[in-house]
């Protein structure tokens, strides 16, 4: 293998590692978990939910947890497909492009379903509770403004 081909291969492996690391950092580490923890604490400790609200929110959380796990598995599969495409093409070709598009589609689905989940929980709240919930969501989405 020529020096130029080795350099391209090293660059592709580095790119794949960077993408995987970025995904792992965003999907598995603190920011998302902190948001969930903050919202969970607010819902269950600070909003004084009645029994009916608590039951409805628990059901919403259960449904979302199942769906989120499925989307996380789909994201892992999309990343594996991207890695395979990069290995096959050794460049930014049509398979790599399609794999990136699929990865973005899955990430978009996760974001949409997360928002649907938040709005479903919000719909269970009284207006005074919803105002506190909204402030917490806004803080979570704009941490640099804190």
TrEMBL record:
Cross-referenced InterPro entries: Metal_resist (IPR025961)
Family matches, as Pfam families = Metal_resist
The protein's superkingdom reads: Bacteria
This chain belongs to which protein, by name? Spy/CpxP family protein refolding chaperone
């Amino acid at each position: 293998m020529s020096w130029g081909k080795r350099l391209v291969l090293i660059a592709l492996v580095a790119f794949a590692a960077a993408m995987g690391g970025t995904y792992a950092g965003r999907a598995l580490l603190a920011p998302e978990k902190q948001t969930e923890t903050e919202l969970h604490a607010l819902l269950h400790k600070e909003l004084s939910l009645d029994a009916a609200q608590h039951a409805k929110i628990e059901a919403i959380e259960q449904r979302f947890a199942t769906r989120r796990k499925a989307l996380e598995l789909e994201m892992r599969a999309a990343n594996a497909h991207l890695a395979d495409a990069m290995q096959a093409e050794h460049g930014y070709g049509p398979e790599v492009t399609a794999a990136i598009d699929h990865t973005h589609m899955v990430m978009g689905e996760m974001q949409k379903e997360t928002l649907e989940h938040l709005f479903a929980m919000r719909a269970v709240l009284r207006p005074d509770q919803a105002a506190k919930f909204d402030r917490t969501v806004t803080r979570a989405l704009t941490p640099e403004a804190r």
